[in-house]
Design a protein that fits this description.
The protein is of the alpha/beta class and 226 residues long. The protein has helices at 2-14, 49-61, 99-110, 124-134, 192-196, 199-202, 206-225, and strands spanning 34-37, 72-75, 86-91, 114-119, 141-142, 172-178, 181-188. It starts with a helix and ends with a helix.
Length: 226
């Protein structure tokens, strides 16, 4: 039933005209996750195996048309960001966007792009500061456990799974909405993307890695459906 449901979803997405110029075509090419490069000193590039493994999981467990599982990255100042409907921001340190990059990220989101940001323990303050520059009129709002992102493919009735302890606080998921569509999703005190990385990197037990992959699938499916 789940495979059938996803097939229907992507047939609908395929009906979008590739001649659209006012938005990001979510089915213009096989799906890939792009890691966003940024300035400020934070390690945007850490754990490059994460997206590779997540894309491989999608290939094996969904009907999503996934590109070759490898590490893709994109510069925030490049027009290439508009070729990726799903962008990941992560890291441990500081994030800084220039005025031009702020305008570009806003345009990306308003054009249909989706940003998933995952705090790798240390980027929380700077990420919130910079996103406030991108959307000064919007707030990062914590999502309730019954939000569709927690049930888009796999069921997480209690919200985000806890992958890493960090400060031993409960995991939280926040969203930014623009014109009624959630275009930014931010996870804090869980580190979902670390759970995607090769086991040798963090020694996560199999059950935690499975939770991370399933929640990652939920995030991606939600982003493509909305």
């Amino acid at each position: 039933m789940k495979s059938f449901y996803l097939t229907i979803v992507f047939l609908i997405l395929a009906s979008y005209s590739q001649s659209q110029t006012d938005g990001i075509n979510k089915n213009s090419s096989p799906f890939k996750i792009a890691r966003l490069k940024y300035s400020g000193g934070g390690d945007w590039y850490n754990d490059p195996s994460a997206e590779v493994n997540m894309m491989d999981y999608l290939k094996k467990n969904t009907t999503i048309d996934v590109d070759e599982p490898k590490f893709y990255s994109v510069d925030v100042a490049s027009d290439d960001i508009f070729n990726y409907p799903f962008i990941l921001i992560t890291g441990h340190g500081n994030i800084e966007f220039s005025a031009n990059e702020i305008a570009r990220l806003r345009k990306y989101c308003e054009s249909g792009g989706f940003i998933y940001a995952d705090d790798d323990y240390g980027m929380d303050i700077s990420f919130k500061r910079e996103m406030k520059k991108v959307f000064p009129e919007e707030e990062l709002k914590e999502l309730p456990f019954n939000h569709k992102i927690y049930n888009s493919q796999y069921s997480f009735p209690n919200g985000l799974p806890k992958i890493h302890e960090h400060d031993q606080k409960p995991p939280q998921g926040f969203g930014i909405y623009k014109d009624g569509r959630m275009c930014v999703y931010y996870t804090f005190e869980t580190n979902i993307s670390d759970g995607w990385a090769d086991t040798k990197e963090h020694q996560d037990p199999p059950e935690k890695k499975e939770e991370a992959f399933k929640m990652g699938t939920n995030i991606i499916v939600y982003s493509l459906m909305n």
